[in-house]
Amino acid sequence: MLRVRGAGRARQSGRVRIQYQQPLIQPSYADRLHAPLPNFRDVMRLMWTGHYRGRVGDVDRIPVLRRGLAPVTAQDTAITWVGHATYLVRIGGAAVLTDPVWSSRIPGVPRRLTPPGVAFGELPPIDAVVISHNHYDHLDSPTVLRLPRSTPVLVPAGLGRWFRRRGFSEVVELDWWQSAEVAGLTFDFAPAQHWSRRGPRDTCRSLWGSWVISGPEHRVYHAGDTGYGPHFAAIAQRYPNIDVAMVPIGAYEPRWFMKPVHMDPEEAVQAVADLGAEHAATMHWGTFVLTREPVTEPLNRVRKAWREAGRDPERLWDLAIGESRALRS
Questions:
Q1: Nearest 10 degrees: CA dihedral of 146, 22, 18, 10?
Q2: Burial class of residue 166 in the structure, from the number of CB atoms within 10 Å of its CB (0-12 exposed, 13-18 middle, 19+ buried)
Q3: Residue 321, SS3 per DSSP
Q4: Strands 185-190, 15-18: parallel, antiparallel or unpaired by DSSP?
Q5: CB-side neighbour CA atoms (13 Å) of 278
Q6: Please, what is the Cα angle at 228 between 275 and 100, to 5 degrees?
Q7: pLDDT in tens, 153-200
Q8: Is 121 exposed, middle or buried (0-12, 13-18, 19+ CB in 10 A)?
Q9: What share of the chain is helix, strand, coil (3-state, %, to 5)?
Q10: Cβ neighbours of residue 122 under 8 Å, at least 6 residues apart?
C-alpha cells in the first residue's frame, strides 16, 4: 500500500490510500497547458527558418569531470549531474535518480555530445526514480529497462501504465500537489509549464510536472522541463526552505517558439529566486542538441544573470558533467 496525500483537484484534502497498480485516468491533461501548443504553421515556420537545427560548436568547452562518487553520510545530501536532466540525488541515506538518460542517442536529435557523468554500473542501489514527463529526453526506455523491475518509480498521472507494461511492480502515479513516501523520503509532485507526448496520438494524455524531495535534513527541487511562470512562487508557498533547486537553462531558442515551455538562463535565475532556494544547480544543456542556441551559451548566460542579480557565486552550482556538490548537516 502507498500513502498519498493531497489528491489533486478531484480530492482536495484528507489522506487517501491507493494501490500501486491503481492508475489516475483522465482522457487529456490539455486543460493544464499554460499556452496553446504550436500549430502546423508554427512548425513550418520553424523549419523554413532553420531554427530547428542546433549549433554544435564549442563542444570541447563543455566541462566534464568524471571522478566517481564520494561517500556521503545519511545526514548529508549530495547531488551529481549525470547530464541533461539526469541527477543522482543522495539524500537521507537513499539514492534517487531524476529523469534517467544514459543512452548515446534519443529519437529525433543528434548523438549525445558528452558521456554520462557517472557510469551506470557505478551507481549505488537506487531507492527511487522520479520522472517529470514522457518526452524522450526525460523518459528513455533503454535506460529505464536497465533498472531492476522492483525499483519504485514515481511518475505523473497517466504515465503509470507505460511502466507497468514493462514489468515495474512499484509504480506511483501522482497529480499536482500530491505526495508519496518512499525510502524515508517525501516526494511531492508540483506543477510545471510544459506538455507531454511520445507518439502521434497521445498528446497531453499524461501529466507533466516537477518534484520536491524532502529528507530529514534537506529539501531539493527538480524542475523537469518548464517555461517560466507563477507556479514557482506557488511551489515556494507550499514547500518553503528549498536547499537546492535543479533548474533547466538550455533549449530556449528561438524564443517565439520555446518561451512557453522552456526557460532561458535569465528566467531560470528568477525562478530560483521565486522558489526561495538557497542554491541553484544547472541542467538541461551540454548533453543533447535540441534547439538553436550555441551549446555553451546557457552556461555563460546563467553565470552573468546570477552575478547581475547580486547572488552569492558560491550558491550557483554550475556543475560539470559528473561533478558532485554536497550539503552537510
A1: 120
A2: middle
A3: strand
A4: unpaired
A5: 10
A6: 80
A7: 999 999 999 999 999 999 999 999 999 999 999 999 999 999 999 998
A8: exposed
A9: 20, 25, 55
A10: 68, 69
Cell of 200: 502521434
Give 308's contacts (C-beta < 8 A, 6+ positions apart): none
| Distance from C-alpha of 48 to C-alpha of 300, rounded to nearest angstrom | 29
Q: The dihedral of CA 140, 132, 85, 81: what is its sign?
A: negative
Class of domain 2-11+55-327 (CATH, top level) = alpha beta
**Residue 226 near residue 209 (C-beta atoms within 8 A):** no
101 and 143 Cβ atoms separated by less than 8 Å: yes
Give the mean model confidence (pLDDT) for residues 223-246: 98
Buried-state track 238-257, b at ≥16 Cβ within 10 A, e below 16 = ebeebbbbbbbbbbbbeeeb
Residue 14 has pLDDT above 50, yes or no: no
H/E/C letters for each residue in 166-198?
CCCCCEEEECCCCEEEECCEEEEEECCCCCCCC
Q: Which three cell numbers stand for residue 150?
A: 522492483
Neighbours of 18 (CB within 10 A): 17
Residue 291 neighbours by CB under 8 Å, 6+ apart: 51, 52, 54, 250, 251, 252, 253, 254, 258, 262
Is residue 263 scored above 90 in pLDDT?
yes
Exposure of 47 in the CB half-sphere (CA atoms within 13 A): 7
Domain ranges of the chain: 2-11+55-327
Output the pLDDT for position 18: 34
- Sorting pLDDT into bands at 50, 70 and 90, what band is 26? low
Residue 100 confidence (pLDDT) above 50: yes
**68: buried, middle or exposed (CB in 10 Å: 19+, 13-18, 0-12)?**
exposed
Q: How many CB atoms lie within 10 A of CB 132?
A: 27
| Closest CA relative to residue 231, chosen from 189, 197, 203, 264 | 189
User: What is the distance between the alpha carbons of residues 95 and 48, in angstroms, rounded to a whole number?
Assistant: 45
